[in-house]
Specification:
Distance between the termini: 48 Å
CATH class of the largest domain: Alpha Beta
Helix content: 40-55%
Mean pLDDT: 91
Low-confidence stretches: none
Largest sheet: 8 strands, mixed
CATH architecture of the largest domain: 2-Layer Sandwich
CATH superfamily of the largest domain: Bira Bifunctional Protein, Domain 2
Number of helices: 18
Length: 455
């Protein structure tokens, strides 16, 4: 049987990892520049930590881990006989792979609240797992790059996160559209439609608008028990395509009797007011009143980022996030508001690859290969190698004294841009012959000048 890996997961070879690390390093540098501190949490969490935090659909996508040993020993016999998977799971699985980085972060904050200085700004770059149907741009194992600030309700944090989007994508050279809405606006809409108790069903359905269209969104809401009158009243909002100001005016008229809805509009206007003083380089900021974000824990501003660049055909979101007012409350710490965003590194990789935006030097690992002539020249090759590495020049000495053609072929296959030839003549004169592999030119260089030239 040929070896294989599970669907929705991938191996990453050296060429891919160099590019992925370019993305991680770019995002990490921006996080640190903005004052966010690094954090890591375990790959697995207690199942009770994760369940009930992502909505009914999200809970279905959590990868459960079977208990160690004979996991059926404590299983509910009736649940097993009746094939009641929900009841059975409680007895055979106590742990799960993390679904995202935000809920584990909230759990961490509660457990370490006496050690943390608030507001607490953290970043986290780790893999997450979802039992989703694999398709283009959607994987079962993927990396998230999160930045969150918790312990403050200031909307200046939302502004900073938009600036972070601009910083990162400017450094990556990619144009993006940042869509923003507010869950309070959606709550206000549900309230004036007389369906306040069905806010989750409404937001989950609206969140699929781009994927399935208006008719199927309406059908889903009806299937969840939302009244036909409410669905019909909502349709003009789903289809409205006016300007930023026109959308706000429509909502102000529609939500004038909803305190929570008007509060959401006020927050949107405050954030946009702050952005007037900024000059975004790669971000096109857009108010999108049908943006919902499917996760239940969002309570305020919500973000979604899509590619806005002619060099890419990618249509799915590549980043998201939002404000959560009491996520730590589910773990016993009330009144701790936070807001965060997440960069989807795997999707960003696909976009940069399609758009040809990986810089040439981002794919380089070794910059110089030193040819192995064998004999006494090995000692000189090792000296050159040490000199280059001590000066942060990535270098290799070919391990075997084989034919020159094979060593040059290795450099070509690895896309190593320079080769050093250092035989007895160069050793005696304390020089090297440096060959440029792209054009074949060669030049003699003093050893004490080599590192500076290559850097």
């Amino acid at each position: 049987m040929k070896p294989s890996i599970p669907r929705g997961t991938r191996d990453f070879g050296p060429d891919e990892m160099v590019k992925r690390n370019y993305i991680f390093d770019t995002i990490r540098a921006s996080f640190r520049k903005y004052g966010y501190l690094p954090l890591e949490t375990p790959s697995m969490e207690n199942l009770s930590t994760l369940m009930g935090k992502y909505g009914e659909e999200g809970d279905k996508l959590i990868f459960k881990i079977l208990n160690s040993g004979d996991f059926l020993e404590k299983a509910d016999a009736d649940a097993l006989a009746n094939k009641d998977s929900k009841k059975l799971t409680a007895g055979i699985s106590e742990k799960a792979l993390r679904y995202d980085l935000t809920v584990p972060f909230a759990r961490y904050v509660v457990m370490h609240q006496n050690e943390i200085t608030f507001p607490f700004k953290r970043y986290q770059i780790q893999p997450v797992w979802r039992a989703d149907k694999p398709q283009k741009g959607r994987y079962r194992e993927f990396y998230q790059c999160d930045a969150d600030v918790i312990g403050t309700t200031s909307l200046l944090n939302e502004l900073e996160l938009i600036e972070l989007f601009d910083e990162v994508f400017n450094n990556l050279g990619l144009g993006v559209k940042v869509q923003i809405n507010n869950r309070k606006i959606l709550s206000g809409i549900a309230e004036i439609l007389g369906e306040a108790e069905r806010i989750i069903d409404i937001t989950v359905a609206i969140d699929k608008l781009d994927k399935i269209g208006v008719d199927k969104v309406k059908a889903e809401m009806l299937s969840k028990g939302v009244s036909e009158n409410a669905v019909n009243s909502l349709q003009p909002l789903l289809e409205f395509a006016g300007t930023h100001d026109q959308k706000l005016e429509l909502l102000k008229t529609m939500l004038k009797s909803s305190e929570v809805g008007m509060k959401g509009i006020s927050e949107i206007e405050e954030i946009f007011g702050y952005t007037k003083a900024l000059d975004f380089k790669k971000v096109n900021l857009e108010f999108e009143m049908t943006l919902a974000r499917g996760l239940n824990y969002y309570t305020g501003a919500i973000f979604e980022v899509k590619v806005d660049d002619s060099r890419s055909s990618f249509t799915s979101s590549i980043c998201g996030g939002g404000r959560y007012d009491d996520l730590t409350g589910i773990f016993g710490l009330n009144g701790m508001s936070g807001v965060g965003i997440s960069f989807g590194a795997d999707r960003i990789y696909d976009v940069l690859e399609e758009a040809g935006l990986f810089p040439a030097d981002a794919t380089l690992s070794t910059k110089v290969l030193i040819v192995n002539f064998g004999g006494e020249e090995i000692a000189y090759g090792l000296e050159i190698l040490r000199t280059l590495r001590n000066n942060a020049v990535y270098a290799e000495l070919y391990p075997d004294a084989v034919k020159m053609k094979k060593q040059m072929g290795y450099a070509d296959a690895r896309n190593i841009p320079y080769v050093i030839l250092a035989g007895s003549e160069e050793r005696n004169s304390r020089e090297v012959t440096l060959k440029n592999m792209s054009d074949g030119t060669q030049q003699k260089i003093k050893l004490d000048q080599l590192a500076d030239l290559l850097k």
